[in-house]
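Collaborator request, handled under Task 6.
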Amino acid sequence: MDLYTIFMRGGRDFKGKMKMNLLLQLFLYGAIFYVLCMIFMYLRQDSLLFYPNLARHEGHGDERVVDCSFHRGAVTLRGWLVNPGLAQEKLLMYYGGNAEDVFLNVDEFKDIHAATLFVAYRGYGPSGGRPGEAEIFADALAVIDDMRSRYSPEQVFLIGRSLGSGVACYVASRREVQGAILVTPYDSIENVAKSHYPWLPVALFLRHRFASFEFARDIRCPLLVVYGGEDKVIGPGRTENLIRHIRGQKEIVFLASADHGTIDMYPAYWQAILRFINPENAVAAEPQPGESVQKN
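Structure tokens returned to the collaborator:
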């Protein structure tokens, strides 16, 4: 074998080794980046799921709204009861979204013939503590038990929006209520996270699952589900999977053009809620284009 042939072959071997080393380095860097992303998501998951607002709404001066407090060990939860004079007749329990200032809903519920309780999750607004799935669930049960003890309402309805729909599902599976309204609900936060981050092994590190589809199997009260076709936060597929797990009586209101944040701006939204909490006075409204109502 002449010197030229040996040199050329050696050059090809060297280039092959360099290419292999480069691929290995790229793979290694990619693996390190992936692991760092998982660590970041694990450490930051609470701040990605919970967005506590700081508004305390002290001294609001509204005569139709009573400030409430509930003591949970070292933590005090604070909220507002709208139309307290109607609490013995009909009580609505509202559970808000992960970034929602629930006090801002007060005016919309004043004209409803019912008392409505808005309690800030722990760590939100005037409530103490830090938010977490187990803590929020336990607080919700304690608060509804406390309200029943204080007012002995004839009827209790739950309203849960976005993150709060999981709280409403949990409470409805553990306490007897006349009905629960789920607005832009999900099957589980785990599945929502998988939809947004399909490249991450969400199930391995998620601490707060909010598995509504599991609670739905134990719910015996009627349910009203309201969701939008343009929801980019909780996709319609996540809501529809939850609906498939509901065993009891349910009414489904689908607003094709509504998104996650504007669904309450549609007249059909309020019509459905009022019809659901006042079945004795319900008048069926004709669905508009892009709206559908199903009952079973």
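The cover message to the collaborator said: "The first strand starts at residue 65 and ends at 72. The two ends are 85 Å apart (CA to CA). Please let us know whether this matches your experimental observations."
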